[in-house]
Amino acid sequence: MNFYELKTNVSNIGSALKDANEQLSVLAADPSSTTEDISAQQKKVDALQVRYKTLNKQYKEEKAKQQVKLKNSKEPAQKSPEERKNHAFAQLVRNTMNKQAVSAEIYQALGDDSTTGGSKFLPKTVSNNIIAAPEETNPLRDISMVTQIPNLEIPRLSFTLDDSDFIQDTATANEMQAKGDTVSFTRNKFKVKVGISETVLLGSDANLTQYIEQGLRNGVTTKERSVAFAADPVSKQAEAHMSFYDKSTVNIKHVTGVDLYEAITQAVADLPESYRENATIVMAYKDYLSIVKTLSNGSATLYGAQPSAVLGKPVVFTDAASLPVIGDFGYVRIIGVNSK
User: CA separation (Å) from 143 to 3, 270, 278, 331?
Assistant: First the structure.
């Protein structure tokens, strides 16, 4: 029974109840009326009263729902885009946790144009950055290229000259040959789960959204970092090609030395000149302190020096690097998140 049917029934029962009460008053005032007549009319009034009370309660409840819907339909125009996004995301989480259906309006507010819903579970800000506990960081994102293009393929051109002499104008047809090739970046999927307490779930939209986004970002960041610096990539063949320490698939060159300092400097020198110019050293901070301790020989001078001055190239620290990794990280591509 919809809102308008309830309203009509309440009006009809109300009129019938009014007439029955008036009839009861007439019977009670008529000396010729019997007690049986009055009792029968009273029962009729009582029955109508119960029906009226029940229908009127349902009518008020439905009316309250209609008012809430009307209020919500007006709210988006009064809220900022960030507030509407937070509200939609919070409702998505609450409905999911309570095993309730998620309306199309919620998905649309989150930028999801899929008919099935959920193809863009994360707001766009989470996709562009990898978004309680301290925020996890992935230093590779500061020195590598981040893209949102799935199944990315990048053209690669290698050029060869016929000879090293100056090319004559008459031989321009043979001056250069270009070979086309592509580098492919595959898509890899994993799941991130965020635990939510009841106090967070019942909190404000902004706090709930911030908490979930923080957890998702930390999970994605940790996964990216652990995959790139997986010390034993063979244990997970599907992820092995993404590790800097993989010897079978990527075959990144390993350089050794009598100590860590010599190994790093030899690795930098071993790079081709075009790569060496923009090379960066990624290593654990404890390994750097060990190098400084050895080089300083008891002096405190090197402890205040910039790492780039000590090792000759920019240095980025991450505890995930069990061994230092040296190279031009501008050739590293990180595919952004597109989760559901």
Answer: 60, 21, 10, 9
**Which residues, in sequence order, are bridge partners of residue 156?**
181
Which SS3 state, helix, strand or coil, does residue 4 take?
Answer: helix
Residues 6 or more apart in contact with residue 277 via CB below 8 angstroms: 328
The total of other beta-carbon atoms located within 10 Å of residue 74's CB is: 9
Contact 145, 338 (CB under 8 A): no
Copy the structure tokens of residue 137. 């960081």
- Alpha carbon 231 to its chain centroid, in Å, reads 27
Question: Looking at residue 264, what is its pLDDT?
Answer: 94
More confident: 218 or 182: 218
Q: What is the per-residue DSSP string for 210-247?
A: HHHHHHHHHHHHHHHHHHHT-S-GGGSHHHHTT-TT-T
Strands 145-147 and 333-335: parallel
Specify whether the backbone of 253 is left (phi greater than 0), alpha (psi in -120 to 50) or beta: beta
Q: Quick one: CA dihedral 311, 312, 314, 320, positive or negative?
A: negative
pLDDT at residue number 191 = 78
pLDDT above 70 covers a percentage of the chain that reads: 73
Q: Please tell me the distance from the alpha carbon of residue 111 to that of residue 122, in angstroms, as a whole number.
A: 9
DSSP string, 300-332: STGGGS-HHHHHSS-EEE-TT-SS-EEE-GGG-
Minimal CA–CA distance to 281: which of 251, 311, 315? Answer: 315
- CA–CA separation, 103 and 110 (whole Å): 12
Residue 150: pLDDT over 80: no
| pLDDT for res 159 | 53
Check pLDDT > 70 for residue 321.
yes
pLDDT band at 163 (very low <50, low <70, confident <90, very high): low
Closest among 278, 329, 280, 270 to 307, alpha carbons compared: 280
Pairing mode of beta strands 176-184, 280-283: unpaired
Structure-token pair, residue 17: 């109840």
Average pLDDT of the residues of the chain: 76
pTM (2 decimals)? 0.52
